[in-house]
């Protein structure tokens, strides 16, 4: 049987193209509102020396705790059952969606995690006490976690910004998605519930990274 070399070459090319495209496809993780606490603030809300109860492992050392709190802004309309993520951090931080800001009446800026200087304040209510945060309430920026070897394969470095395309009935492009690189991460793009609902994305859905010129 004679092999059509031209056909084989075309098939091989198509396979290589698909493989090349695959490395740009990243799973989505939808992040609901949550809070990170310092050791001191955890003591205030739950009592001296309280330890969080791990409910689910997340990325790296992070985990979702069984414990929740209530947050209150100037509107005095509380949002209950805000999940605590452990372990404790150096700074307390509340991550909410834009929709939540309308309920709370807070002017939360879009920031990278950890960048809380000058951000919005909130009141946090726990079972043992009340915490008044002067700052720390943000809307988390869109970002992609990846391992160093994944970043190398994509030609990206920590702190780069890329665009991301989401297909489907409500196809869209997310701009200025921050790249975060660490040995503790897994390949995943994090967006909040507002972004996910607007496009119809769920946990595990895949979107495509678009490497912009100059990145």
Quickly list its features.
215 residues, alpha/beta, 6-stranded mixed β-barrel, elongated
Fraction of residues in β-strands? 35-45%
Question: On the 0-100 scale, what is the average pLDDT?
Answer: 92
Low-confidence stretches: none
How would the global form be characterised? elongated
Largest sheet: 6 strands, mixed, barrel
Structural class: alpha/beta
* Helix content class: 10-25%
Could you tell me how far the N terminus lies from the C terminus, measured between alpha carbons in angstroms?
48 Å
> How many strands?
14
Count of helical stretches: 5
What is the chain-wise order of helices and strands? HEEHEEEEHEEEEHEEEHE
Strand adjacency order, main sheet: 1-13-10-12-11-14
Rg, Cα atoms, Å: 21 Å
What oligomerization state is this entry in?
Answer: single chain
How do you describe this structure in short?
The protein has a domain of 110 residues.
Summarize the structure in words.
With 215 residues, the chain is an alpha/beta fold. It has a domain at 31-140. It contains five helices and 14 strands. Strand 4 and strand 5 (79-86) form a beta hairpin. The chain is elongated and about 75 Å long. The protein starts with a helix and ends in a 5-residue tail after the last strand. The relative contact order is 0.19.
Blueprint of the fold:
Elements: H1 5-22, E1 25-31, E2 34-36, H2 39-46, E3 54-57, E4 63-72, E5 79-86, E6 93-95, H3 98-104, E7 110-111, E8 120-125, E9 130-140, E10 143-146, H4 148-154, E11 161-166, E12 172-181, E13 188-192, H5 193-199, E14 206-210
Parallel strand pairs: 1-13, 2-5, 6-9, 7-9, 10-12
Antiparallel strand pairs: 1-14, 2-6, 3-4, 4-5, 4-8, 8-9, 10-13, 11-12, 11-14
């Amino acid at each position: 049987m004679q092999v059509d070399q031209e056909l084989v070459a075309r098939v091989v090319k198509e396979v290589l193209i698909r493989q090349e495209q695959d490395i740009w496809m990243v799973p989505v993780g939808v992040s609901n509102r949550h809070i990170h606490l310092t050791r001191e603030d955890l003591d205030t809300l739950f009592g001296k020396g309280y330890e969080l109860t791990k409910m689910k492992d997340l990325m790296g050392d992070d985990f979702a705790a069984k414990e929740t709190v209530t947050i209150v802004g100037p509107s005095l309309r509380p949002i209950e059952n805000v999940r605590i993520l452990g372990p404790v951090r150096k700074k307390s931080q509340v991550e909410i969606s834009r929709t939540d800001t309308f309920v709370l009446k807070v002017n939360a800026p879009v920031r990278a995690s950890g960048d809380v200087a000058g951000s919005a304040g909130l009141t946090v209510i726990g079972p043992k006490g009340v915490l008044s945060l002067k700052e720390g309430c943000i809307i988390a920026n869109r970002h992609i976690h990846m391992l160093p070897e994944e970043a190398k394969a994509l030609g990206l470095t920590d702190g780069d910004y890329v665009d991301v395309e989401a297909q489907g009935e409500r196809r869209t492009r997310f701009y200025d998605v921050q790249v975060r690189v660490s040995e503790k991460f897994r390949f995943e793009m994090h967006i909040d519930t507002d972004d996910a609902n607007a496009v119809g994305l769920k946990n595990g859905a895949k979107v495509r990274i678009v490497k912009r010129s100059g990145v």
